[in-house]
Recover the amino acids of this structure.
């Protein structure tokens, strides 16, 4: 790796604005993790695993994600560059790995942007039925309603505008909704546990089909990377932390967001299955809301749950919009794909071109409606598992090849924790692809179609930028990816220093 740049060939590195404080990082990460999936697929969790099986799946998933989060915390502190995993894999494994991971993560975030848009239209029209509108068409048995579609499109335009204007306004908006979500959730979770009955949780495990009950728990477990992902928005926006923000405090928000989110999911599963016999929830369109409406005979309780879900939708929607634009921006700034994607707005300090690109691609998916929800969850889970594998493996490699390099945050457990993250990521990745096939019931999985189309688009961008990549020396590209961290290899010192 070349460390001394040829100053005659240097070009200024496009810099994003630097305005985020530690609390903004928490609200971005936690708000992204929670989302609305718990409202939409709670019935799937209970049907597959039963209440105790779902609790065990999320408990195990949280432990796995904590090991991954620790690896991310160490890497984010060492390499606080926009794009997160793009920078880590480039520095550790090279340009092809960087592009592979960056493009896979872009798929996961863009697809989740679509997921949240569809969910926003669905939940809003459930709270206010008059907004649903007429059925326009049906895809894979799921109707697409005019009102729900328009709500999704309006929300997409609003978030595009918000992110185009810069990250500070998006972060403040995120903070307000995140704490609104927490307050509303506290109301219905407390009601469910206080007035619920443990007997409603029986049977504790679900045994669907001919296989053992363990398969249901595993089926829920392999989705946990999707439902607990979102903390990695912190590494992707580290470059935008305010100058006075402590690096240690920021990376600790990774672990805090995972921990609080895991507790949230466990409490939702517990309270919903205690408040009403859980098998009665399975036929309901939105089981998390229906459980409280049936138990308390109160539409108000259901609306509290749904309003919490709306807050979660918008917080996740906002954050994945941010994440996908930062990933693609990092690839464009490094001239790995066309450099147009690496431009920064001269006034707002936002990656304006990538924000527009993400908005357009995600909007195209909105027209597929609710038929895409489960496939999106599965695709995103696979992409996250691949990124987690490379990040955990990267920590092991850096500790071996650069043991004396300055680490503003040094994770406890060392290679043991990182190796656990590697093994678990491989397992989740394998199981997720197997689950795609298993769910397809003999047909070609929709998840694989999404992945193949995205690989094709990524190949087009890769070849479009072939001559551009050849013009940029690797020393210069390293500066474009890592920014002010280009001299990190030479920084050796007290790893406990702030």
């Amino acid at each position: 790796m070349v460390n001394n740049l040829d100053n005659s060939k240097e070009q200024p590195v496009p810099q994003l604005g630097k305005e985020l404080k530690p609390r903004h990082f928490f609200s971005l990460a936690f708000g992204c993790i929670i989302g609305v999936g718990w409202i939409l697929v709670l019935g799937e969790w209970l049907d597959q695993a039963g209440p105790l099986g779902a609790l065990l799946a999320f408990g195990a998933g949280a432990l796995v994600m904590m090991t991954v989060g620790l690896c991310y915390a160490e890497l984010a502190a060492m390499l606080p560059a926009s794009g997160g995993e793009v920078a880590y894999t480039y520095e550790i494994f090279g340009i092809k790995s960087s592009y592979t991971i960056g493009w896979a993560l872009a798929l996961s975030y863009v697809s989740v942007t679509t997921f949240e848009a569809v969910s926003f239209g669905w939940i809003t029209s459930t709270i206010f039925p008059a907004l649903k509108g007429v059925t326009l068409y049906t895809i894979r048995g799921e109707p697409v309603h005019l009102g729900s579609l328009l709500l999704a499109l309006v929300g997409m335009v609003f978030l595009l505008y918000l992110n185009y204007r810069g990250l500070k306004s998006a972060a403040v908006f995120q903070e307000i909704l995140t704490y609104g979500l927490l307050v509303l959730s506290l109301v219905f979770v407390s009601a469910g546990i206080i007035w619920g009955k443990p007997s409603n949780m029986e049977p504790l495990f679900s045994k669907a089909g001919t296989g053992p009950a363990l398969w249901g728990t595993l089926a829920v477990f392999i989705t946990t990377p999707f439902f607990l992902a979102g903390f990695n928005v912190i590494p992707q926006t580290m470059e935008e932390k305010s100058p006075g923000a402590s690096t240690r405090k920021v990376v600790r928000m990774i672990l805090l967001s995972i921990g609080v989110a895991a507790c949230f999911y466990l409490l939702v599963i517990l309270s919903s299955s205690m408040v009403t016999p859980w098998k009665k929830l399975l036929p309901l369109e939105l089981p998390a809301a229906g459980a409280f409406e049936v138990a308390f005979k109160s539409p108000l309780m259901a609306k509290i749950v749904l309003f919490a879900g709306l807050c979660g939708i918008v917080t996740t929607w906002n954050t994945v919009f941010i994440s996908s634009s930062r990933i693609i921006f990092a690839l464009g700034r490094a001239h790995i794909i066309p450099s147009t994607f690496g431009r920064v707005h001269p006034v707002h300090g936002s990656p304006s071109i990538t924000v527009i690109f993400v908005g357009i691609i995600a909007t195209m998916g909105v027209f597929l409606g609710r038929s895409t929800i489960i496939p999106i969850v599965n695709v995103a889970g696979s992409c996250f598992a691949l990124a987690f594998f490379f990040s955990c493996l990267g920590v092991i490699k850096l500790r071996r090849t650069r043991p004396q390099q300055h680490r503003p945050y040094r994770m406890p457990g060392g290679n043991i924790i990182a190796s656990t993250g590697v093994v678990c990521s491989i397992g989740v990745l394998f199981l997720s692809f197997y689950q795609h096939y298993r769910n397809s019931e003999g047909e070609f999985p929709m998840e694989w179609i999404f992945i193949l189309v995205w690989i094709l688009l990524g190949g087009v961008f890769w070849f479009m930028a072939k001559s551009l990549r050849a013009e940029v020396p690797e020393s210069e590209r390293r500066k474009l990816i890592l920014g002010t961290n280009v001299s990190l290899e030479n920084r050796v010192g007290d790893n406990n220093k702030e």
User: Anything to note?
Assistant: The longest strand covers residues 135-139. The chain has 18 helices and two strands.
